[in-house]
Amino acid sequence: MIINFFAILANRYFFYTYKFPLMNTTNDIRLRLRFYKDLNENVDALRQKFEKYTTINSSDYFVKIRGYHIWLNIKGTKKAYWSPHLHLELEPKSTTETHIRGLFGPDPTLWTFFMFLHFMIGGTFLIFCGIAYSDYVLKTPVRNDLIVMTLMVIAWILLYFIAKQIRSNGHQQMNDLEALFLEIIAS
Q1: What are phi and psi of 186, to 5 degrees?
Q2: Residue 7 and which of 47, 105, 120, 184 are 20 to 30 A apart at CA?
Q3: What share of the chain is helix, strand, coil (3-state, %, to 5)?
Q4: Residue ranges of the chain whose pLDDT lies below 50
Q5: 3-class SS of residue 100
Q6: pLDDT tens for each residue of 88-104
Q7: Which CATH class is domain 34-107+171-186?
């Protein structure tokens, strides 16, 4: 049985006959782990605690502060390519209360590399979609184009599983960064 996908997609009224379900806005996929915390402490006093920690020469952690944005990074022998960092954003709710937004993320270099790979795979897929459509219209074989498109989908799925593995490798270090964060705000 041969399914002609291009003939289906070339049909002028294909998308009008299918009813797309509405997106459920309560379902969301968290790509990066987030947390929120409210403290009964002034935002400037809380920032001073992080500045005080920067004076301690820790061999495992590095703290960078820019305004009310704080980054906790792993350094030294514990740092690996999959090591996460923690970005904290301090927001004043009132003069005596602070709202903290925490976001765990991958190393920026690794994230940039993954985005580059995603764009390359997506671009290759789209280019070969166009070539396959042209070959179909010209009545030439599209087998090689479909093989490349299938390989790009497999590579995209492989990237997803690699990213999940990297995130699970860094899980213990995320716990360490969270413990450091809680230690600093408790001081």
Answers
A1: -80, -15
A2: 120
A3: 55, 20, 25
A4: 13-30
A5: strand
A6: 999 998 888 999 998 88
A7: alpha beta
- Residues 65 and 75: their CA atoms lie apart, in Å, by 16
Q: Supply 165's token pair.
A: 């593995």
10 Å CB burial of residue 50 (0-12, 13-18, 19+) is buried
pTM confidence score:
0.69
- Token readout for 137 is 């219209």
Angle at 161 between CA 159 and CA 162, to 5 degrees: 60
Residue 50's identity, in one-letter code, is: F
Number of neighbours of residue 33 by Cβ within 10 angstroms: 15
Please compute, for residue 136, the number of CA atoms within 13 A of its CA located in the half-sphere on the CB side: 16
8 Å CB contact between 170 and 82: yes
Q: What's the alpha-carbon Rg for the chain, to the nearest Å?
A: 24
